[in-house]
Amino acid sequence: LSARCFTARHEGLSKDRCEFRCLAHPDGIPLSTQEGQPFLNLNGIQVLSARCQNLLPHVGALRGLGVDVLRLSPQHRYSAEVARAFAEAIAGRPARILDEWSPEGNCDGYWNGEAGIASLASTA
Fold first, then answer.
1. Please, are residues 31 and 39 in contact by the beta-carbon 8 Å criterion?
2. What is the four-CA torsion angle of 20, 72, 75, 98, rounded to 10 degrees?
3. d(CA 101, CA 110)
4. Is pLDDT of 103 > 60?
5. Does pLDDT of 92 surpass 50?
């Protein structure tokens, strides 16, 4: 376990002299599997999935379970558009998240009891 910033390590800098190099990578530093499939993004001391967990197609099911608050993770671009799409879906209107808003793709596998990277529901 280390509190060292992954971005500083990647840049060969100590965490105390990182020069805020993370600002040059607003979406994190992408990591791929050996097969070249996007896998993770390193962002400071966080390790994030390369794909965006997208439960937009499941808003109705979430409501049925009594969920009345959703947390949207901000991203470098398109956060306002994503928020509007969720607001539309919550209001009962058709909504979707465009592929270009999530360059590495969306996923909802964990919601469906599958591998997290799986994308089983359509966002169209």
1. yes
2. 170
3. 21
4. yes
5. yes
CB atoms within 10 A of CB 89: 22
Q: What is the pLDDT at residue 49?
A: 87
Query: ∠ CA 37-100-43 to the nearest 5 degrees?
Result: 55
pLDDT, average across residues 17-32: 88
Would the pTM of this model clear 0.90, i.e. be above it? no
What's the length of the chain? 124
Alpha-carbon gap, residue 71 to 83, rounded angstroms? 10
Going by the DSSP 8-state scheme, the letter that residue 43 receives in this structure is E
**In the predicted model, is pLDDT for residue 120 greater than 90?**
no
Q: At a CB cut-off of 8 Å and minimum separation 6, what does 6 contact?
A: 29, 42, 43, 44, 45, 46, 47
User: Strand 106-107 relative to strand 52-53: parallel, antiparallel, unpaired?
Assistant: parallel
Cβ atoms within 10 A of the Cβ of 51, count?
Answer: 23
Contact, 31 vs 86, CB < 8 A? no
The identity of residue 20, as a single letter, is: F
